[in-house]
Amino acid sequence: MSSFRFPRPATLLTDVLAVAIVILLAFLPYPDAVFQARGLLLVPALLPAALMPFRRRLPVVVLAVSLGCSTVTALFGVLSPGVMIAIAVAAFAVTDRVARPVGLLLVGAASILVFFTNAMTLDGEVFDSRALQFLLFIVLAGAVGDATRSRREYAAAMRERAERAERGREEEARRRVAEERVRIARDLHDIVAHQIAVISLNAGVASSAIEARPERAREALTAIRAAARTVLTDIGGLMSVLRDGDTDAPCDRHPPVGLDGVDDLVAQVEAAGLRVDLRRDAELGALAGSSDHVAYLAIREGLTNAHKHGEGDRAALAIRGGDGVVDIVVTNAVGEESPDATPSGHGLRGLRERVAAVRGRVVVLRDQDEFRLHVAIPTAGDDA
């Protein structure tokens, strides 16, 4: 059940004003008798006044009735100014409320009808100024109504565009937050995972060698202490970055390491108990700074996984250059009885994202008892 809503003060005021003008023009004393409606002609002269409050909801009906009233008065030789003003008000409502082609067509047809009926009232004087002034009012009212409708549609389009832009900014902000979370998680993995793996592996070495080879156990414990100190320092750096709100800064405080740090990485891994067969081409293509760091991370991820998930204590690392790419291949043995030995966690997922960011590719293969990580990264000359 629809509830009645009292008109707004501005709407009510314009309705009262329109009704008052039509009634006033019907009763004003005119020096020219052609403008004065008397007797029963006051009915068609005043009827449009009663329709003025409905011109917004029923503009076409109000225009049609007003035209009918003007035709009736014209047949009796009266050119009622009140009816003409009512037609002009209705013409404004039609072009303001109805679709533009329909509104312009209706106002054009109304203007033609008024033109000929007024000429009939004035004994065929088609261009009599007394008739043309009312015709001008009708055409002008229709043009103003069309301009009002266009301005309202333009304002609505601007609001919609602004809302769409605001939604776009919100979606962009959510996307950036999601990307930032992934980046922080990836950097946290880079900081923690390798050192935790070193700690775990050295803890195993220390526990197995503490009685038979105490000096080897002491070396393992020293490595554990260094790795723990490193990871605590790096996590502290990450926390300070997040507290400062500078999430665009790198999460660790160390400069990014490239392929020139491979020898130190291999020595660290071998100290943890994994022997690495390193084969490296003497001439490698030049890698950009970010690509060089990603190549180092790929080697570290591959060797860490080989130590954690591999079978035995050996792994092969090959670094080759050619055809515009640097190929990195890490191979290690896996046990057939351990189908879950193929790593597939967050480390490789993050590695794939990093390699894809420098237009590289990652291929992971397991062939019977061998696991292979193959990373191809374009050189600087092929990165454009």
Automatic annotation (TrEMBL):
Q: Does the keyword Membrane apply?
A: yes
Q: Which Pfam families match?
A: HisKA_3
Q: Which reaction does it catalyse?
A: ATP + protein L-histidine = ADP + protein N-phospho-L-histidine
Outline the extent of the Signal transduction histidine kinase subgroup 3 dimerisation and phosphoacceptor domain. 180-245
EC main group: transferase
Q: Name one GO cellular component term.
A: membrane
Enzyme Commission numbers on file:
2.7.13.3
| Transmembrane spans | 12-30, 61-92, 98-119, 131-148
Gene3D superfamilies, from UniProt?
1.20.5.1930, Histidine kinase-like ATPase, C-terminal domain
Specify the superkingdom: Bacteria
Q: Which UniProt keywords apply?
A: ATP-binding, Kinase, Membrane, Nucleotide-binding, Phosphoprotein, Transferase, Transmembrane, Transmembrane helix, Two-component regulatory system
GO terms assigned for molecular function = ATP binding; phosphorelay sensor kinase activity; protein dimerization activity
Name this protein carries in UniProt: histidine kinase
Q: Which organism is it from?
A: Microbacterium sp. A8/3-1
